[in-house]
Design goal:
heterodimer; A: about 160 residues; mainly alpha; two-stranded antiparallel sheet; 7 helices; 3 strands; extended; B: about 180 residues; alpha/beta; Rossmann fold; five-stranded parallel β-sheet; two-stranded antiparallel ribbon; 8 strands; about 20% strand; disordered C terminus
Chain lengths: ~160, ~180
């Protein structure tokens, strides 16, 4: 039975709990364990990695095109933000965590200091170069030290 | 996080997912396949999603926030304001890469049940689904809002009480309005 709260200063508020249909839909006690589900997901993500590599390649190429397109700064930043935002949310699932981190930095910089990027176009170029580099070297074990410092160096460049 | 030894069976779960990014949907396809969830409908726009909900009510809706032309906030508002009680009460899981505080606050304020930040993982989706199953949200119905109680916190509520006619919540209105403008 819904409870009615009413006092002279308050809005009329009804508080209630709707029927819990998820309890019926999600059974308890059987089904694969969480570990088994994670193993299965790892296999499926690995199988899709080469397909995602092409998606990532296309996205980075589009971002480079935007940079030289001559678009007005707000449009350019919005286009780059949209691409980087997708990469940030997807890349690590397919085995590109460094690419996702650099994409996150791009989003952060565009969101937080757009004026600085407008005044210093070289900083956007630097971020895109870092994204390309991360994509090419994500799985290159000879570049571990550079990979470790890539995101930090972007942060430092933005602070300069 | 639920105990790893505890088992849940998601195979009867009926889900609608909406995201305008093809590869975000692909990630969810993989995660749901790994969780043995078979009844999943994938939508690439808010309009398609609402139509799919009306056509056949799912058990849960998974919503991305930044979509065009209508964003996820607008979709959640429409679900919570729908004439059908069953639709209004749907559990809504927001899955978003836009994890700034104003974005999350706005998602809560329009009626999201739970929020999951991207990148998505089996562990994250499993955790939120089980949490939503075991801890269903209380709903609040007032003149301008129907949806999960937005005051959920384990720490208790320390702010001033708007339900008692207070206006402390307006302090944050500027930042949220700014974010709302951004996503429109």
């Amino acid at each position: 039975m819904p409870k009615k709260y009413d006092n002279t200063n308050a809005q009329d508020v009804e508080v209630y709990t709707p029927p819990n249909k998820l309890r019926e839909a999600i059974g308890e006690g059987d089904g694969p364990s969480l570990g088994e589900m994670q193993k299965m997901a790892d296999q499926l993500f690995r199988a899709s990695q080469s397909e995602y590599r092409l998606v990532l390649e296309g996205a980075i190429a589009r971002m480079k095109d935007y940079l030289v397109s001559g678009d007005a700064v707000p449009e350019l930043q919005a286009e780059l933000y949209a691409e980087a935002h997708d990469i940030k949310g997807q890349a690590s699932s397919f085995g590109f965590p460094l690419v996702a981190q650099v994409a996150e930095r791009i989003c952060f910089s565009i969101r937080e200091v757009p004026e600085k990027l407008e005044a210093r176009p070289d900083l956007l170029e630097l971020h895109l170069s870092a994204l390309s580099w991360a994509f090419v070297n994500q799985h290159n074990d000879d570049k571990l030290a550079e990979k470790d410092t890539l995101v930090r160096s972007l942060r430092e460049a933005m602070a300069s | 996080m639920p105990s790893p030894s505890h088992r849940y069976n998601f195979s009867d779960l009926d889900i609608i997912v909406v995201d305008d990014s093809e590869f975000a949907l692909e990630i969810m396809r993989i995660i749901f396949a790994a969780m043995n969830i078979k009844k999943v409908r994938y939508c690439s726009s808010s309009v398609d999603c609402l139509a799919a909900i009306i056509k056949n009510l799912p058990d849960i809706v998974v919503v991305d926030l930044l979509m065009k032309p209508k964003n996820g906030y607008e979709l959640i508002r429409r679900i919570r304001a729908h004439a059908s009680e069953d639709i209004r009460h749907l559990p809504i899981l927001v899955a978003t890469a836009y994890s700034s505080a104003p974005a999350i606050r706005l998602a809560r304020d329009v009626g999201a049940s739970e929020i999951l930040c991207k990148p998505l993982s089996v562990e994250g989706v499993y955790d939120r689904f089980v949490h939503m199953r075991n801890h269903p949200r209380q709903f609040v119905k007032i003149a301008e809002y129907v949806g999960p109680d937005r005051r959920r916190t384990l720490r208790g509520f320390e702010g001033m009480d708007r339900r008692a006619g207070d206006t402390a919540g307006e302090l944050d209105a500027n930042s949220e309005q700014k974010h709302a403008k951004e996503v429109r």
